[in-house]
Amino acid sequence: MAQYYITTAIDYVNGDPHLGHAYEKIGADIIARFKRLAGYDTYFLTGTDEHSINVARQAEAEGLSAKEFCNIMAGRFRSAWDNLGISYDRFIRTTDDDHIKTVQDIIRRTNERGYIYKDIYSGYYCVSCERFIEEKDLIEGKCPFHPSQEPEWVEESNYFFALSKFQDPLLRHINENPEFILPAARRNEVINRIKGGLQDVSVSRSTMTWGVPFPREIDEDQVVYVWFDALINYLTGAGYKPGANEFGKWWPANLHYIGKDITWFHCVIWPAVLMASDIPLPKTIFGHGFVTIKGLKMSKSEGIVVDPLKVIDSLGADPLRFYLMKAVPHGQDGDFSFEGLAETYNADLANDLGNLINRTAAMIKKYFKGEVPLPSGLYEPEDEKIRILGDEISQIAHEKMEKLDSSGALHEIWGLITAANKYIEDSAPWALAKEGNNKRLVTVILNLVESIAKAAVMLSPFIPDSSEKIWDVLGLKGKAEDIRWDKVIDIRGLLPGINLKEAELLFPRLDMENSDFTKGEFRLAELARKEKKKEKKQKADQLIRDIKGEEEGVLKMDGLISIDDFSKLDLRVAEVASAERIKGTDKLIKMEIDLGTEKRQLVAGIAEFYAPEDLVGKYIVVVANLKPVKIRGVESQGMLLAGSTKDLKELAIITVDRPLPKGSKVR
Ligand code: MSP
């Protein structure tokens, strides 16, 4: 039997699972369930990524050890996925023993093959992405994915992986294997970035202890960089045997199903690490889109989150699974709203599917005492049509699923439900009963049951609980998910003689006026408003920073300030006690200033205009009550005043023209 190994990204555990994480697990679960139905021996891996800085910091803040904190959080993720019906075969944690051994073994393999070396890393690091960021990739000094956070400046002795050696092999592999990166748009992005050049990447951290220890024989003081550790989970999950040159029953993976923000790690770093280790590459990496709220990306670090468990509280998991597949189409972004969920539930599940089943069941009870009749042998052309349509749809939906287009497949399957509802209207079974045309009535009822049973099987990856309920209502033996997809066309054989069960009403309509969902909508609107406000404030702050010191600055600020506004500034005279350039930068000088009563550290972007030694002894003016900030990882406890031309080509520091005691107030 062909096998299929599918994985999701593993989630950071520094916050609770949100709808973005849930979307990915649901998307992967639908594919895994489909593959099982299609006859593949399937293995589905998901789990948690636990060695992040944020986790260590949060655990400390909560007075727990990092491992204790992770135990709690991993439990929450796992239980969320259980509640959403995610049919994973293993829930992996990067703190699992077998994983730690696998990571150390891969470090050894790459090291033995000459792809690991020691050097100094200095640069920016975004803690939320757990990613080293090159200066050119910062937007207004911030990580593009986490604009509300300052990237941290890191300087440490690390081990590096020689990624730069893999530029050509990677491009070759991607070009020769069109299925390697999907959808095509992601593939093109990755190709262009690789063509832009690859730099070696750090694979260890020496300034933290929470992580997989580097193999002792290589270095005793380093832990493995969290992304290197995390990617290797796919090998651990496959059953990798450290030291044995056996990559595990399930390797190579058929599909890594991940978000588009982490394609770089999966499509570039990961395959390069595998190449460096002589391990075959996964077949496909699919970068899905984002769930957004009012157009904003859901993200815990930016504070925009919806808890999937709250959403499924009243409706159950299936409506959410169904809605997300519709709202966030194949490979694209899509917006979540409670109102959209409620509307989709009412229109598709309650009206289309629920009514089809309830009406059909009512007719079987009324006309055949609840027992599905034996075929009568009388067929009109329309009766043939609906059966053929069911068969065709099963093939088209199958093809779409094989192409990982779950939302497209769902759309096709829905075509059968719409057609079956229309078939009821067109064939008017109540009129057939009235006319005494029992033979045709039998045919119509059988065709309806057949269409519903076919839909139940094909929908089982999407709405597994509901599919089983439908199967049960029809009185069919076993489970919908036990029917192989290619046997959907033979379902008719199972039907005659089955007895309908007395069933709960499937998908009762939601009262939109009084439902909790409308309240949810308000909460979301509020969230989005707050976020917009935050965005606006950040933009305004940035603008003020931009125009500070420029000739037109005061005018641009549009308006006059009162003496009270001015008196908020604590301006002081200070002597520059010492000054030095900040390594690795062209513009920054770090200086110690003496305010008479205390000494402080300042960072200023004046290195192009002043040599450090010229500054020492100058009496300058500083803003003494400014909140400290980190610039390139160095704290600045205030700001000096300087004048400059608009184009910033000339700059002069404000000094006092006759001696004043240090710390004198400037008024
Ligand atoms: N820990 C890393 C992944 C390591 S995989 C070897 C990570 N974790 S995460 O918690 O930030 O994200 C986990 C997954 O959820 C990623 O694939 C990410 O793209 C996905 N999503 C997070 N927010 C999302 C949305 N709003 N919408 C859809 N998926 C997004 O990255």
Question: Please, could you describe this protein's structure?
Answer:
The chain is of the alpha/beta class. The chain has four domains: 3-310, 3-Layer(aba) Sandwich (Rossmann fold); 339-494, Isoleucyl-tRNA Synthetase, Domain 1 (Orthogonal Bundle), CATH 1.10.730; 527-560; 563-653, Nucleic acid-binding proteins (OB fold (Dihydrolipoamide Acetyltransferase, E2P), Beta Barrel), CATH 2.40.50. The chain is built from 21 helices and 26 strands. The strands form seven sheets. Strands 1, 2, 3, 4, 8, 12 and 13 form a seven-stranded parallel beta sheet that branches. Strand 21 and strand 22 form a beta hairpin. The longest helix has 32 residues, at 516-547. The protein binds 5'-O-[(L-methionyl)-sulphamoyl]adenosine. 5'-O-[(L-methionyl)-sulphamoyl]adenosine binds at residues 9-12, 20-21, 23-24, 49, 230-231, 233, 258-259, 261-262, 290-291, 297-299.
CATH superfamily of the largest domain: HUPs
Shape: elongated
Topology-level CATH name of the largest domain: Rossmann fold
Helicity level: 40-55%
**Unique ligands:** 5'-O-[(L-methionyl)-sulphamoyl]adenosine
Structural class: alpha/beta
Largest sheet: 7 strands, parallel
Strands, count = 26
Secondary-structure topology with pairs:
Layout: E1 3-8, E2 11-12, H1 19-37, E3 41-49, H2 53-61, H3 66-83, E4 90-93, H4 97-112, E5 116-126, E6 131-133, E7 152-161, H5 167-176, E8 181-182, H6 184-195, E9 201-202, E10 204-205, E11 223-224, H7 226-231, H8 233-238, E12 255-259, H9 263-276, E13 284-288, E14 291-293, E15 296-297, H10 308-315, H11 317-327, E16 334-336, H12 338-368, H13 381-402, H14 406-427, H15 429-435, H16 438-459, H17 464-473, H18 516-547, H19 553-556, H20 563-567, E17 571-581, E18 589-594, E19 599-604, H21 612-615, E20 619-623, E21 629-631, E22 634-636, E23 639-640, E24 642-644, E25 651-653, E26 665-666
Parallel strand pairs: 1-3, 1-12, 2-3, 3-4, 8-13, 12-13, 14-16
Antiparallel strand pairs: 5-6, 5-7, 7-9, 10-11, 14-15, 17-18, 17-20, 17-26, 18-19, 20-23, 21-22, 24-25
This protein binds 5'-O-[(L-methionyl)-sulphamoyl]adenosine (MSP).
